[in-house]
């Protein structure tokens, strides 16, 4: 009997026998998962991370096998990861980390102020792990930036700087890794040996980023569909979180661009399907999940320039060879983002006084096109309502400048998100996948209306013209007033 069949049999039998029977069944299953009794390491997370009461009971019982008393948070997480593989759906992995955070707080109630605080730090370590050890663009996050990112999220206060420095150094010196089944190790080892023998590129890099992050890994799928390709000149205007790119790194560079799956690959040579991606190709690649492309109406130095704002608030400019090509890229990028972007996670857990953007998973959505449209429509309604409520309570003139900055930053964010989801909803209503499969630089007939759809108008809101660094990530940052027109330089 397979492990899934065993679980279903135990679950169905226990749920019909009342709460005490459920607990006993959960204890039995948790023990077998911990001892890997007819289960593999890769089976554990999916049984702990399901969104039902029995799975929660199993997770609680499973975590009881771990005593984190007296251990630091990073030591506990490494100890926890030695027992199983953190694989599965993004939401399932997130729930597993919630259970871990609850258990750590139970074992160490005086170390960190709350369970929310533990979970916030756990997520922060996972994100830091990807930043320091992944194939991401630009410089690595510094300790000071890591500390600034977590300002004000510990029940309205700040985590101890000594604690954050210790966590940062731990992740920097040794990346987080979880256990892997023996057969997976042998499989990956043999694949690498075979590929080297055949003279092909080993599959050591299967993702853009790092598989050690369950939230933000960008999948590199060699079998993904190619939706558009052609030459583009690229200029990086803003780095992650809208931080202005240093002048020496803003120059225009020409690439052969390939929109393949949810990734825009930028290669120095023309695309060849049989050619393996180099490290440089992966560093230049841009994920378009939760992104928005538009005409760069605020950039006047070159013609046919589009602006791409990514999920992590980087801003890139691309110059196409003609107005039709520019519109074609805008259409295809936005359509890919609308069709494949998975629903976002809630904003970071912590003080509601401090605004922080929600995590936007890079994994491809599992929803059908109809469900995806409903999800986008629901998010659009939520954002629209939140924006209206936000603007109905402007800050008093007597409040501190920092609070005014927080208000403006959130306003800019909500305005942009409203524009983005309006675009996604419209594209899905016009055909979604069918539009992606259409050929031609300008896209399908329905897509040609993009220029009249909600666009990034610099006069309407500063966030759509110049993305600002998240206030929670820079102490001295103050957004400019909406009346100031900003231009990309």
TrEMBL record:
Segments forming domain SEC7: 5-174
Pfam families, alphabetized: PH_9, Sec7
Protein's UniProt keywords contain Cytoplasm: no
Signal sequence annotation: none
Composition skew (Polar residues), residue ranges: 201-213
Bias-annotated ranges (Basic and acidic residues): 1-11, 181-198, 470-480
Region listing for Disordered, in residue ranges: 1-20, 181-213, 438-489
Keywords: Cell membrane, Membrane
Subcellular location: Cell projection, Ruffle membrane
CDD domains (UniProt xref): PH_EFA6 (cd13295), Sec7 (cd00171)
Superkingdom to which the source organism belongs: Eukaryota
Every PH domain range: 225-338
PROSITE patterns: PH_DOMAIN, SEC7
Name of this protein: PH and SEC7 domain-containing protein 3 isoform X7
Lineage: Eukaryota, Metazoa, Chordata, Craniata, Vertebrata
């Amino acid at each position: 009997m397979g492990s899934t069949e065993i679980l279903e049999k135990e679950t169905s039998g226990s749920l019909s026998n009342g709460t005490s029977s459920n607990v006993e069944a959960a204890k039995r299953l948790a023990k077998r998962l911990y001892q890997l009794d007819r289960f593999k390491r890769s089976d554990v997370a999916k049984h702990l991370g399901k969104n039902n009461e029995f799975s929660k009971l199993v997770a609680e019982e499973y975590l009881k096998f771990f005593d984190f008393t007296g251990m630091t948070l990073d030591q506990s997480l490494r100890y926890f990861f030695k027992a199983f593989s953190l694989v599965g759906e993004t939401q399932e992995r997130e729930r597993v980390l919630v259970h871990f955070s609850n258990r750590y707080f139970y074992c160490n109630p005086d170390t960190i102020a709350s369970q929310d605080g533990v979970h916030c730090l756990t997520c922060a370590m996972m994100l830091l792990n990807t930043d320091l050890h992944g194939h991401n663009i630009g410089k690595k996050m510094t300790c000071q930036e890591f500390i600034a990112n977590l300002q004000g999220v510990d029940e309205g206060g700040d985590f101890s700087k000594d604690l954050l420095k210790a966590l940062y150094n731990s992740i920097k010196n040794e990346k987080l890794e979880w256990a892997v089944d023996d057969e997976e190790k042998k499989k990956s080892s043999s694949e690498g040996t075979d590929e080297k023998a055949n003279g092909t590129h080993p599959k050591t890099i299967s993702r853009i980023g790092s598989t050690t992050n369950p939230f933000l890994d960008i999948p590199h799928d060699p079998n993904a569909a190619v939706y558009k390709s052609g030459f583009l000149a690229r200029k990086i205007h803003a780095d992650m979180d809208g931080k202005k790119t240093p002048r020496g790194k803003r120059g225009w560079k020409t690439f052969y661009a390939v929109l393949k799956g949810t990734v825009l690959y930028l290669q120095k040579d023309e695309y060849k399907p049989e050619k393996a991606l180099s490290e440089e190709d992966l560093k230049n690649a841009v994920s378009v999940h939760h992104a928005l492309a538009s005409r760069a109406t605020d950039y006047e130095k070159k013609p046919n320039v589009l602006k791409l704002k990514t999920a992590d608030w980087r801003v890139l400019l691309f110059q196409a060879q003609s107005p039709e090509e520019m519109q074609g890229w805008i259409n295809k990028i936005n359509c890919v983002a609308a069709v494949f972007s998975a629903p976002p996670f809630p904003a970071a857990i912590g003080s509601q006084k401090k605004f922080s953007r929600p995590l936007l998973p890079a994994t491809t959505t599992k929803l059908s096109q109809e469900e995806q449209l409903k999800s986008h429509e629901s998010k659009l309604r939520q954002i629209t309502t939140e924006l209206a409520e936000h603007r109905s309570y402007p800050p008093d003139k007597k409040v501190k400048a920092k609070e005014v900055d927080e208000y403006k930053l959130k306003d800019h964010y909500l305005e942009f998100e409203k524009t983005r989801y309006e675009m996604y909803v419209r594209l899905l209503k016009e055909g979604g996948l069918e539009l992606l499969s259409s050929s031609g630089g300008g896209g399908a007939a329905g897509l040609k209306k993009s220029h009249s759809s909600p666009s990034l108008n610099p006069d309407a809101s500063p966030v759509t013209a110049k993305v600002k660094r998240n206030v929670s990530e820079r102490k001295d940052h103050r957004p400019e007033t909406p009346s100031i027109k900003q231009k990309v330089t």
